[in-house]
Every structure is written in structure tokens, then in C-alpha cells.
Design a protein that fits this description.
- The protein is mostly helical.
- The chain has a two-stranded antiparallel sheet with strand order 1-2.
- The radius of gyration is 24 Å and the shape is flat.
- The N and C termini lie far apart (about 90 Å).
């Protein structure tokens, strides 16, 4: 009787969360992306991206809504047709996302609102 468990030889193959977390830190927040899109809409002038060897495609193929760089134009165009991008565009066209100021006010860390003064002496 006894002996080793027959299932010990099989390792559990789970999704590695490290790659998702690593890319999570590189992305801008929703409020930052929203403010940049507003600036682009007001200026209506898209500046050419500076060349950067560290970014995919030398930093020339960029999606403003998703804050992502792509290796070439074909991959970027494929991304524009994806469901993830379309959801992101719809989200950014809606109401403004919450900012740090909103979070502080909700936590009670902002300026107190005591209402209007009733009597002045």
C-alpha cells in the first residue's frame, strides 16, 4: 500500500500572471488617455511620433485610445478592427473616467463642503 501519489508527476500549467502585470505598469490610466484624446480633438493636429529604438516599430505605429505601440502598420490596422479596440473607443467616447481628485473626494480627503453660510455676522 502506500507509495507516491500518481498525480505528483504532472505539474499544474497555469496562466502566468507576470506578463499581464508587467504590461499593466506600462499603460497609462484611463483618465490620462482621456485627457490626451481631448487635447488631440481640440488641436486637431497629429504630431509625428519621435523615433525611439526601444519601442516596437521605432515608435511610429501608435494607438491613442489603447496606449499601445505596434511593430508595423498592418498589425496596427488589424488592432483597429479588433473587438478590444472598438470597446476602448466606445469607452473613451462616453463620460469622463474617474480621476485621482474624484477618488480623494469620495474617500473624504478633499475640501469639506459645509454648504452655504446661513447668517453672516
Amino acid at each position: 500500500m502506500g507509495g507516491k501519489c500518481p498525480h505528483r508527476k504532472v505539474k499544474k500549467r497555469r496562466f502566468s500572471h507576470k506578463t499581464a502585470r508587467r504590461s499593466r505598469f506600462l499603460l497609462k490610466g484611463d483618465d490620462m488617455v482621456y485627457s490626451e484624446l481631448l487635447k488631440l480633438a481640440e488641436g486637431a493636429e497629429a504630431k509625428p511620433q519621435p523615433l525611439d529604438e526601444d519601442l516596437p516599430g521605432m515608435g511610429q505605429f501608435y494607438c491613442h485610445h489603447c496606449d499601445r505601440y505596434f511593430a508595423n502598420e498592418d498589425v496596427r490596422d488589424e488592432h483597429f478592427r479588433s473587438k478590444r479596440h472598438k470597446k476602448r473607443v466606445k469607452q473613451m467616447m462616453g463620460p469622463a473616467p474617474h480621476t485621482q481628485l474624484d477618488a480623494e473626494l469620495a474617500a473624504g480627503m478633499g475640501m469639506p463642503d459645509n454648504g452655504p453660510k446661513l447668517m453672516s455676522a
